[in-house]
Amino acid sequence: MHDKRMRSAGEIAFNGGMFVLSLVLLVAAYAISGFESLSSPGALPMAVALAMVVSSGLILLDNVRNSRRDGTRFIRDILPPAVIVMMLFVAGYAVLLVPLGFLPTSLLFLALSIIYLRRGGIAYALTVSLVALLLVYVVFRLVFTVLMPAGIVPEAEILAAIGRMFGGAE
Amino acid sequence: MEALGYFLTPWLDIKLLFLVAAGTFAGVYVGAIPGLSVTMAVSILIGFTFTWDVYPALCLMVGIFMGGVYGGSRTAILLNIPGAPSAIATAMDGYPLAQKGLAGEAIGISTVMSFVGGLIGIAVLALAAPTVSDFALTFQPRDFMLLAVLGILLVGSLSGESLVKGIFAGAMGLLIGTVGMDPLTAEERFTFGFTQLWGGISFIAVMIGMFGVSEALAQLHHVDKTAVKQTISRIVPSFASVRKYLPLSLQTSSIGVIIGALPGTGGDIAALMAYDHAKRVTKNPEVPFGQGAKEGLVAPETANNAAVGGAFIPMLTLGIPGDAVTAIMIGALYIHGLNPGPMLMIDQPQMFWFITGALALANIFMLIFGLTGIRLFTKIVEMPRTVLIPLILLLSIVGAYAVNNAITDVYWMLAFGVLGYFMKSYGYQLGPVILGVILSRLLDENWRRAIISDQGSLVSLFKGMLTSPLSLVLLAMVVMIFVSQTPIWKRWRNKAGLPASGGDHNAPGSGA
């Protein structure tokens, strides 16, 4: 619809990457069952991979032909440091989740990201993270009974102890 | 009578009643907070309600859906930021009203009208779905195949900046859906030798990545924006004003139901078309459109809530989602072992009536929560994004992890989050990806059934398509979408002076 759209920073690289990915997937789709029959398991994968190759090719072609650039800069407008840092935080969270456990990892993640995004305010960040984590824990662990890795926190023992505290009179 | 019993199940069970109420309440706020979207909330919730029974899980999700569609209008009125794509049209006259200090009145009338629209949508769902479902039993595999293609193409062409990008996104989703063991022959597809990929990629990880993580990352661009405070006067509208707009609301509700029921089109398009309709039929508005005409508020609000009921028709009877949110709802039904499609009404009619009952109940709760608690509302909407974004990311991780208790799913989610972020940045729409993932199995199975029943011959498949009226109509629609993108057609349309379809879908917080 917007034929005269200008190209943003990094757009050719991204669309080129998508095109290459589509080609790789097309080859992989062919490898499933080749041109054996129209009802083979590889038929739909090949058709959609071909659609991806053609559409990404057209997008890329449009990009290359359309040489006008808008004023965006990659590191300022497309992938600012805040986004990179948060991506890394999430990746770090995923790495630490199993060995360290849900509670410490989440607290660390929330506090660090709030400190980073607000540029300071450690006491505020810690308080907010603790309250938020408590809420998340109560709602999701206890109400939704989602099982998260306990890690280094003896969660089951603590829960049992709390249970004894309230039910201990009997 | 049996149907009535199922319909009333969520009304009579105190736990289910509470869950619908809680879901609707949460939905209103999720829809209202810019940066949180219904798609995001429902996809994350699938992860959390995975271990639940199907009834309570459905109650919660139906509530969130209904509340979320309405909630988007609040921020559209108060802040000129549509909380959801379906509220884009609401902002056009809602915000001018708020600027005049009439925010309370605007919220009141939009709440009551959303209720009216929602009610009509549900009524049509209850009346039409059994018929559609009967009709759908006569569908051939090729018809389902065409419907699936049509749905993806419609979402791709109506919501994105170009059809080509929509096709790419849809094809990508379809391909993601085929990863793993082929359900018919157990051959490996796109596993690249990894046994971990045999089970396929968890579509919940894809959904949460695309709608939770990528949205949260995109929100980081506006982390410093703060909300504007509004004073709110009286909310509950007078009976006279409700009666005045009732005729218009009936018309726009019908538009909403019909647009919602078409595969591939949802509340956002319904709202824009209803707005357009109101502009044409209102001869002498008290205030011009765009400057705070109440008609301009009534039309999109009735239409987008009526579209909810409409969207459930193809979703429950055909298994074809109308937009990203219904695609996710279908995903939720799959997870709970239900198979939306023409057989649902026959095998499990109780499920259909239960969902309809929950929708009706959610609609009532929406009215209650919409007309109360405005003070709490303004507090929550002012929640700083510096806290909100880390929380969304945390919930996304927990949601993705919870489904299979697998850390691999978290990595998938992150990968699709990053991919989705870049796709968004470069003008791709994410809705078709999710539609593709959900429809992949249906398309694959029906394609193979169709081609096998025609002895593997493409020629006789086409012959079949051209001789059956239904297939022909569907095929014509698919072809039409391609034709409408060609330069010749565009020139012809410009000459005829027809308005361009679609609208500005790049509003912040738009989940789809």
Automatic annotation (TrEMBL), chain A:
Residues covered by the DUF1468 domain: 21-149
Transmembrane domains' residue ranges: 12-32, 44-61, 82-115, 121-140
InterPro entries in the record: DUF1468 (IPR009936)
The keyword Transmembrane is annotated on this UniProt entry: yes
Record's protein name: Tripartite tricarboxylate transporter TctB family protein
Organism encoding this protein: Paracoccus spongiarum
One Pfam family this sequence matches: TctB
Keywords per UniProt: Membrane, Transmembrane, Transmembrane helix
Automatic annotation (TrEMBL), chain B:
Residues of the DUF112 domain: 17-435
Keywords: Membrane, Transmembrane, Transmembrane helix
The keyword Transmembrane belongs to this UniProt entry's keyword annotation: yes
Top-rank taxon, per record: Bacteria
InterPro entries noted in UniProt: DUF112_TM
Bilayer-spanning residue ranges: 16-48, 54-70, 77-95, 107-132, 144-160, 197-218, 255-275, 312-335, 351-374, 386-406, 426-443, 464-483
Name of the featured protein: Tripartite tricarboxylate transporter permease
Source species of the chain: Paracoccus spongiarum
Lineage start: Bacteria, Pseudomonadati, Pseudomonadota, Alphaproteobacteria, Rhodobacterales
